[in-house]
């Protein structure tokens, strides 16, 4: 049931950020069916169409009554046909490898590749080496040209090699343990840091594909360059084996459903230390995001997602408030005046939005 404080939120609002969207909705089966079409459109590079489906799914997620004729919807749509096609299955499989996006998936399919074995041969995945050296990659997205194709061949090769670990979902308790361990280490490197575990975990997902954590330090001078220093520290402690540094770019294509901000971040491969009660030696994906203290809550909101929810906060801020919002901050459009909300609630207040708890942001 939708909590009473949210019942006044209009489920029919055009903006996802005004709607209450649970993780599992009343019409989940329908949402799941439509998601197949959405994924198919995205995999085919039909971004506009995929986005329309995303919007429809998102609207259904907030719809507070059960739609009774799902049968009919199933009959009408050719969802089954899509889901069973060789192309859809192969493109889905390819893009499930971290670092492979739709356009790379299509390119690989066009080359005649169909299975993960094919990918292994194509990318030349080698048996695992001794991981003593930190595998460090820099990614600089060309301005204005969103790298829809993903993160590059080296990363794909790494992700292929680690896919047996990466496909294991991370239970909440382990997410929390990873958060604790990382926070203890960060406070060795720079005392007084604060953090929030964001991503799907914060929206209540029982298990996650990766762990996303936003950090800051109340002293702005202390958080500068901290991301790299910290990753090197974690590597020395044997907890991080690979890292992709991303920083300082904006590659926002309005047609894309994803949006990278200009915060300093490290996409890492992480292993809990053997001393942890949760230690299984499983490699986990972990995203570390460093924000300056003034924009910490913007980063927390942006990285809490869902992608559709934060997309519509951006849209709302632009349409209704003449402001620009993303994970790296809020500015007034006409004079670029920045705003520095001191809490997450203040961000909602600033935009004149009702508070929506993170577990109701699964738009
Ligand atoms: P993800 O870690 O990709 O997704 P998730 O945490 O929602 O779910 P899971 O990890 O279990 O698959 O992204 C975390 C949040 O970061 C996402 O909800 C919104 C934000 N985000 C962006 O703002 N832009 C992006 O390009 C991506 C990938 C994520
Ligand atoms: Mn590059
Ligand atoms: Mn995540
Ligand atoms: Mn992530």
Automatic annotation (TrEMBL):
Please classify the protein's predominant subcellular localization into one broad category: nucleus
Q: Which residues of the full protein are shown?
A: 200 to 562 of 564
Keyword field contains Glycosyltransferase: no
Highest taxon of source: Eukaryota
The name on file for this protein is DNA polymerase
Q: Which family does it belong to?
A: Belongs to the DNA polymerase type-X family.
Recorded catalytic activity of this chain's protein: DNA(n) + a 2'-deoxyribonucleoside 5'-triphosphate = DNA(n+1) + diphosphate
Q: What is the purpose of this protein? A: DNA polymerase that functions in several pathways of DNA repair. Involved in base excision repair (BER) responsible for repair of lesions that give rise to abasic (AP) sites in DNA. Also contributes to DNA double-strand break repair by non-homologous end joining and homologous recombination. Has both template-dependent and template-independent (terminal transferase) DNA polymerase activities. Has also a 5'-deoxyribose-5-phosphate lyase (dRP lyase) activity.
Q: What is the lineage of its organism?
A: Eukaryota, Fungi, Dikarya, Basidiomycota, Agaricomycotina
State which Enzyme Commission number(s) the record gives.
Answer: 2.7.7.7
* Biological processes, Gene Ontology terms: DNA replication; double-strand break repair via nonhomologous end joining
Per UniProt, the keywords (alphabetical) are: DNA damage, DNA repair, DNA replication, DNA synthesis, DNA-binding, DNA-directed DNA polymerase, Nucleotidyltransferase, Nucleus, Transferase
Does the record bear Iron in its keywords? no
Q: List the Gene Ontology MF annotations in alphabetical order.
A: DNA binding; DNA-directed DNA polymerase activity; metal ion binding
Query: Which locations, inside or outside the cell, does it occupy?
Result: Nucleus
Example GO CC term: the record gives:
nucleus
């Amino acid at each position: 049931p939708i909590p009473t404080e949210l019942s006044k939120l209009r489920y029919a609002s055009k903006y996802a950020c005004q709607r209450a969207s649970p993780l599992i909705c009343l019409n989940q089966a329908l949402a799941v069916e439509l998601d197949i079409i959405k994924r198919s459109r995205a995999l085919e590079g039909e971004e506009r169409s995929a986005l329309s489906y995303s919007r429809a799914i998102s609207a259904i997620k907030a719809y507070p009554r059960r739609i009774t004729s799902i049968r009919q919807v199933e009959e009408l749509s050719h969802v089954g046909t899509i889901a069973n096609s060789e192309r859809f299955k192969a493109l889905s499989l390819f893009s499930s490898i971290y670092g492979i996006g739709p356009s790379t998936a299509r390119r690989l399919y066009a080359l005649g590749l169909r299975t993960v074995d094919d990918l292994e041969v194509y990318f030349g995945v080698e048996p695992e080496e001794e991981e003593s050296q930190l595998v460090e990659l820099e990614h600089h997205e060309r301005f204005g040209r969103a790298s829809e194709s993903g993160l590059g061949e080296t990363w794909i090769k790494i992700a292929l090699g680690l896919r047996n670990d990466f496909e294991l979902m991370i239970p909440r308790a382990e997410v929390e343990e990873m958060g604790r361990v990382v926070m203890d280490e960060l406070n060795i490197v720079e005392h007084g840091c604060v953090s929030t575990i964001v991503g799907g975990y914060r929206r209540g997902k029982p298990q996650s594909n990766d762990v996303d954590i936003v950090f800051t330090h109340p002293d702005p001078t202390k958080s500068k360059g901290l991301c790299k220093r910290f990753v090197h520290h974690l590597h020395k402690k044997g907890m991080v084996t690979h890292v992709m540094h991303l920083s300082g770019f904006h590659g926002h294509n309005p047609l894309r459903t994803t949006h990278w901000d200009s915060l300093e971040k490290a996409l890492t491969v992480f292993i809990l230390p053997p001393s942890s009660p949760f230690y299984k030696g499983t490699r986990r994906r972990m995203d570390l995001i460093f924000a300056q203290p003034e924009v910490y809550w913007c980063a927390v909101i942006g990285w809490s997602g869902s992608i559709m929810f934060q997309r519509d906060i951006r849209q709302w801020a632009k349409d209704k408030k003449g402001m620009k919002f993303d994970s790296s901050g809020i500015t007034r459009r006409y004079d670029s005046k920045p705003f520095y909300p001191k809490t997450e609630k203040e961000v909602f207040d600033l935009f004149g939005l009702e508070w929506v708890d993170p577990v109701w942001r699964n738009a």
